[in-house]
Design brief:
The chain has one domain. Helix 3 runs antiparallel to helix 4. The model has no long low-confidence stretch (mean pLDDT about 80). The protein is about 80% helix and about 0% strand. The protein is mainly alpha-helical and about 110 residues long.
Length: about 110
């Protein structure tokens, strides 16, 4: 019985991290400069501490349950996926981010 929960939890974490990371990256790409700046600074702030420390902080704030544990493990990893999705030029979102940077439309330019 315990292996079912563990394997299901791992599958949910993998899928949730990918989906949430893609949504964060899509939000950063589709918005204007201010949205891009807010999303960029938020992802940088969440990437500053190690992911496990962020997951422990989320889990302690949310309380003890399996769903809260899944959310606590998905959240820190999703921002890393968002940065990778926006930084990889061979992917669709990365190409859009690169084009925005080339045109000077990104938050830093």
């Amino acid at each position: 019985m315990g292996a079912r929960w563990s394997l299901a939890g791992a599958a949910v974490i993998c899928a949730g991290t990918s989906v949430l990371g893609f949504l964060i990256a899509a939000l950063a790409v589709s918005g204007d400069r201010r949205v891009d700046a807010v999303v960029g600074r938020t992802t940088e702030a969440m990437m500053a501490p190690p992911g496990l420390v962020s997951a422990l902080a989320f889990a302690s704030m949310l309380g003890a349950s399996f769903v809260n544990l899944l959310f606590a493990l998905i959240s820190p990893a999703a921002v890393v996926r968002a940065r990778v999705a926006c930084a990889a030029p061979e992917r669709a979102l990365g190409a859009v981010c690169g084009e925005r940077h080339r045109l000077g439309l990104d938050a830093g330019g």
